[in-house]
Amino acid sequence: MRKSLIITAMAAVAISVSAAKVKKTVVPAELMPTWTEWHDLQVNEVNRYGLHTNFFAYEDMHAALAGNMAQSANYLSLEGSWKFNWVADADQRPTDFYKTNYDDSAWKTMQVPGIWEMNGYGDPEYVNVGFGWRYMFNEEDYFKGFKKEYKVTNDSVPVPISDNHVGSYRRVMELPANWNGKQVVAHFGSVTSNIYLFVNGHYVGYAEDSKVAAEFDITKYVKPGKNLIAFQTFRWCDGSWDEDQDFWRLSGVARNCYLFAKNPNVQVSNIKLTTDLLNDYKDGELLVNVNVKGNPIIEFQLINANNQVVGKSTGTFNKKLNGVARFTVPNVEKWTAETPYLYTLLAIVKDGKGNVVEVIPQKVGFRKVEIKNSQLLVNGQPVLIKGADRHEIDPDGGYVLTRERMIQDIKIMKRLNINAVRTCHYPDDPIWYELCDEYGLYITAEANQESHGFQYGQNSPVVKKIFAKQIMERNQHNMEMYYNHPSVIVWSLGNETDNSQNFVDAYNWIKSQDKSRPVQYERGLWGHGDDSDIYCPMYMSHDKSEKYAKNDANKRPLIQCEYNHTMGNSSGGFLEYWDLIRKYPKYQGGYIWDFVDQALHRKPDFKASRTLADYEAISAKYEPGSGNMSPNYTYGGDYNKKDASDNNFNCNGVI
User: Are the CB atoms for 110 and 104 separated by under 8 Å?
Assistant: First the structure.
């Protein structure tokens, strides 16, 4: 049957899922940082570009349909070799590194993206529980002092100076001639643990939360021709109190880094897609919400997987009210992990004269996520979560992964019948979500929040109001950036941080912005809290799991966020878990800890140019029975006797 499309365009309608924006701190160009930002819990960003979903605005239809951001005229790569200076202690860092007349001739070089410890600057450090600098103090005494300090109004958090490595970067970039007069934004995909950015000697801004992009509008600081970009990042900052995950503690720059250009007067500054299924899950509904500058004319085109335009809508939008367009698709092709059907939405943005100023492509997966009768449903059907927790790690690149390595992960997951991934314990590279949309994997999308080293209890510093801003903003970053991805079916507030009003507030904020997905938090249910829609414990026994599933008073679906700790000769009891999962409708699976051993190669050999075939050939070379010795792997404690270490506890993975 030929599918038809019913379209309703409602311009300037005050329906906005992006309301309640966070107030940004804007610093005039003539001011300088206080250099206390890196140890102040209440200053997590300065002059940061406004939060938005993961999209790129191309110059025309042809470029947008090709979808190759790096080939766009609106893109300028920041990747490659930078001048680099590394110091062991924070008080040794150069303080005038950003000046245009600074002599960097004696500096070394560092690749961007690139991890310091994988390139000979400092040692990789692996810690499961406890902050990266735990070897410097007696934790009990230290936390007593921490709590005592916060009984007063001082918001300066103790972060070490000693052994707190600092990297300084400098590079001269030449702007394209046709960028003159355009808005220019710098995008750093992931910088650990923070970033102070300067352009042409001017302070631009500051950002924490190392697992989401740090973006800054640098328009007022750049000039035609050559421009000096300089930034500095610390191994640890106050944000590190919220990044105490069970993984390698590494430093530097990961993910894509680039400049992008936009029309300064007429543009879409944010676009959010909300899908639904109507009429017994047969028909699809798409709400397209935009925030704009100027008064653009926006033509929306919805294109199916056969490259057929199945509907159009045109409206004039304005900066004050923005607006929303609505599409209804009868007998829609639905998105699931098994059938990841994707439409493409094009937002063709024009000025008042009808000239195309930008074209934004977004993939659309029509699906509906609900919790009904104590079950998690996708498109009206209960799903079994055959999941794995996946850290973002490469044995050669550390935090730097290629797209081809991610595809290799997904292909292995598909072969192993894994259908879901929890992004433990932070947001992943945007490419990962795009691939999960394309290949079909359900995602529990976790915010970059873990303070496991504080342990649990109402005397823990992290339950106090002083951590409220960190916890809220990290959840806002996570949801705002990845809102449009159909693969994301659950939001997670974070991991292994004691529950408090801070998380209840974050839960309520997400629910106010996104009514299309459930939200979970493992610690939220220990006290029978109201900040988790799913009962998501970790390592609950067979007996306790069955007891929960049999109790009709328990209304939330049971999906363990971690179970079946796959380390060494383990994974016993797996059959017994799945006998229970298939017996009780309320018990819907879990996420294995974890997907792949985090061990690093003793001699890293990272190549960004490797293809998927290269990775598969390397894996095949070391298959059991091949007679080939695998590369030498390292774990925590293999590097020095000083750093904190939980030794080989990171060697736990399905593969």
Answer: no
Do residues 351 and 294 touch, judged by C-beta distance below 8 A?
yes
Residue 388 has pLDDT above 50, yes or no: yes
Q: Could you tell me the CA-to-CA distances from 202 to 29, 123, 198, 338 in Å, in that order?
A: 6, 32, 5, 51
CATH topology of domain 6-15+265-364: Immunoglobulin-like (2.60.40)
Q: Which fold has domain 37-56+68-260?
A: Jelly Rolls (2.60.120)
* 3-state secondary structure at position 492: strand
**Mean pLDDT of the region 506-526:** 94
Q: What is the pLDDT of residues 586-603, one digit of tens each?
A: 999 999 999 999 999 999
Which sequence spans correspond to the domains of the chain?
6-15+265-364, 37-56+68-260, 384-596
User: What's the CA gap between 183 and 49, in Å, rounded?
Assistant: 12
Report the DSSP beta bridge partners of residue 382. 377
CATH superfamily for domain 384-596: Glycosidases (3.20.20.80)
Which tokens is 591 given?
A: 């996420």
pLDDT at 522: 94
The pair of structure tokens assigned to 153 is 């109004």
Q: Annotated catalytic residue: which of 496, 546, 576, 623? A: 496
Residue 79 annotated in active site = no
**Is 562 an annotated catalytic residue?**
yes
Backbone angles phi, psi at 8, to 5 degrees: -130, 125
Q: Is the pLDDT of residue 303 over 90?
A: yes
Q: What is the DSSP letter of 615?
A: H
pLDDT, one tens digit per residue, over 229-247 is 999 999 999 999 999 999 9
User: Which of the following is catalytic: 208, 473, 522, 562?
Assistant: 562
Check pLDDT > 80 for residue 409. yes
pTM: 0.94
CA 399 to each of CA 84, 117, 368, 393: distance values in angstroms, whole numbers, following the listed order = 19, 11, 33, 5
